Write the structure tokens for this entry.
Amino acid sequence: MLFYASHSHDEPGVTLADIKQNPDLTRHLAGWGRDGDAGLIAARDETPVAACWLRRFLPSESGDVSYYDETTPELVIAVDIGATGQGIGTQLFVEMLVRADDSGLPRIVLTARAENPAIRLYERHGFVAIDRITNRVGTESVKMLRG
């Protein structure tokens, strides 16, 4: 799912093996299960087709462009290319926000490529743009905060 969340499928020649070697991406899942990690997976016939997760970065990981502070997790959404446009990602996103609210989580940060139409969805759910950043492939992304 990290392959899709990072839009690596849009990059010619990038493979899953490349993703597994990229520390800017693997930090989103490495050592999964630490304090603050939460995730949801949607599956079809027992095959994952989408995922949404929260990850709090440690102060030592503050160099990540999505880092806000040590108490604010980043939200990541991924949908398999064959399952896009079916509302699956939106369902996971909304459910994750409900769970975050129920647990008293005050803030969530996310980044999205500037041309991503999902930015409107994020805004409808209380996210506001707080920064424009250069992402790992050199294009512009929007850093958004809720709370």
